[in-house]
Amino acid sequence: MSERRRSLMRLEIARAAVKLFRAKGVAATTGDDIAGAIGISARTLWRYFPTKESCVRPLLTGSLETLAAALRDCPPGAGLLAHLERVGIFADRETLGTEPIADLVRMTRTEPALRTVWLDVHHAAEEVFAEIIAERVGAAPGDLAVRMQAAVLNAALRVAAEEHARALAQSSDPPPLGAVLRTALTAAAPALPAFAPAPEPDTRPRTDAGTGT
């Protein structure tokens, strides 16, 4: 099976799992239930995922992988917010509202097993962000300053996703995900010097020293 077909199968399993978790709860849902929902055997399901809770992981990693790719492509001095705006990260993504991602993120607040997967996904993402930041600043990924910036970036993304999921459930006119993400990263930007924009050139007229002209 090609890698693309494997990825599509993983997503199909993830969507089926979220639908069942939402309807029955995590504890009452079995691997057989998830497999049967998409017409595969439980044995096949376990080839893709080690536990029923981990079945949801592909829905949680996609946006983080997209963001990581955008960070790797951010030119030196471009500025984080300007770069993400330019590559479309803040563009409204209707598919994120129609897929079960928001339901899944909300369930991480009430289902401890799903919360564990959610936090594990972000822990892994934080390590990736640390590697990207370390390369930009010429330091080691384990450097404390690098790790702190990675943690700030990771926290902003996690809180933005949680806030957007909450707003979708509670408001008839929720802000789009892109707007929530922009607000979160704007707040985080001062603590991310690795992605600071280059200073504006000083265009003020110079005066000759000692003459005042």
From TrEMBL:
Domain HTH tetR-type residue range list: 7-67
UniProt region (Disordered), positions on chain: 191-213
Gene3D superfamilies reported in the protein's UniProt record: Tetracycline Repressor, domain 2
Pfam families: TetR_C_14 (PF17754), TetR_N (PF00440)
Keyword set, alphabetical order: DNA-binding, Transcription, Transcription regulation
Annotated region of DNA binding: 30-49
Matching PROSITE patterns: HTH_TETR_2
SUPFAM superfamilies: Homeodomain-like
Gene Ontology MF terms in the entry: DNA-binding transcription factor activity; transcription cis-regulatory region binding
Keyword match Kinase: no
Protein name: TetR/AcrR family transcriptional regulator
Organism encoding this protein: Streptomonospora mangrovi
